[in-house]
Write the structure tokens for this entry.
Amino acid sequence: MTALLAKVSLNHVVTQVPGAASVISSDQLREAVDEVAELRGLIVKYEQFFLAQVQQTAACNALHNVEARTCKWFLRMHDLVGNDLPLTQEFLAQMMGVRRTSVTGVATEMQKAGMITYSRGVFGFSTSR
């Protein structure tokens, strides 16, 4: 629950895909967490999950090549968004911390293999495989 103790965020958040969101001030969230034990428990579980995810991502980035990381990222986004993913190769490269040309090469090979389609900022996932 260390995130609730600070007044300054150490993170920069970027929305990857369109969707709905709710906003609450940090002071209001702190009050709610102090008053509702179930919420406090959920926040603690989420913080543990998020830290584990960050650690795993760091390890994967160090051990796996761009192709494997792109496939993992596509699978994660497919689970969240579905078959159409509206984003550019440039944005995907920024999210993965690689050059756009690397993403272009991987996307081209995946498209040739029939795994994805890509056109004007929208990746599509093949459902026939």
